[in-house]
């Protein structure tokens, strides 16, 4: 049965009286302010490390193909383990689970930072730590998404998901700038140390939450066939299966910016190492603006997701044909706006349409479609960039967005939720 007939809307703060209040409604919840603040600081560190890791791999190997393969190794566990991770999330206390995963991810960054600073880093170490990162992320990513619902309740989930995603992209603006400064002064190794320290912020925010004000989802008892039941449930609800398939296509060929953009900066525009930071910063700036607009509009559904996918295709195509680095950065702003709108619309749609007992498994499938597709796409994008040009790799991403739009327009997939706050919307 699609939707959540058994879960009435959770009473939240009084209805916002202005567009600005509507845009920031979830921030009126004290627990969400604590949670998103810790997440934002930690995500800045994550983007510092993301930029540094790409530059480190290129320094060690000078190969776009190897960059793609190692990026693949980093996300392969998410592809393989996400369905099981989703079941684990449904069975466990999400807050306690996040404390474990965040501490583990911080330790991995610390080890990598020490290895680089001591000059002992080898490419095999980067691969091993990338795989360990992926194993923990397979649980951490969907757990963080599912936990947002417990922090704010059903009535504010759309707004909370959008603001949380916007904070990711604020970090995408700030993180690469910090990375460029650290790489140019004290060196790449300190980027990993900064990320390791930043995990303390999100751990502190989880410990400081008022647990009495949370909206916990009852845990699911162990039983046979629960994994298959989750997959059948997702496949049986068009407003869940259609966004998941669209995200899988876009995630495989379009979201490989960790591979395509550093190669575009170096091979196409022959820029310094900081050129990659400018491109990523452009993505983040556009995503912040797009996220605020998405938070204000508060619309979800397959139809809206389809329209956004078409706009996304145009924006990525503009990056592919940009003749200069400044124009590519400007086009990246448009990509960022389309990206955040696509992500928040799809994520909110599948969460609102899922029953509580399946939410961990559904968010795990979303995480698998988003980042678990990277092991497939990143080697293709890296190899295509080496053999032809990063421009062709980006063009492939634009074509993938068009394919996602076709999937969304396919007959039978136009059931949609119209707002985040309407119980049973679009059913």
From TrEMBL:
Chief localisation class: membrane
InterPro entries on file: MFS_trans_sf (IPR036259), TM_effector (IPR010290)
Keyword Membrane: yes
Membrane topology listed for this record: Multi-pass membrane protein
Subcellular localization(s) per the UniProt record: Cell membrane
CDD domains: MFS_MefA_like
Keyword field contains Transport: yes
Keyword annotations from UniProtKB, A to Z: Cell membrane, Membrane, Transmembrane, Transmembrane helix, Transport
Positions of transmembrane segments: 41-60, 66-85, 97-117, 123-139, 160-181, 187-209, 230-255, 275-298, 310-343, 363-385, 392-410
Protein name: MFS transporter
Naturally occurring in which organism (per UniProt): Nonomuraea antimicrobica
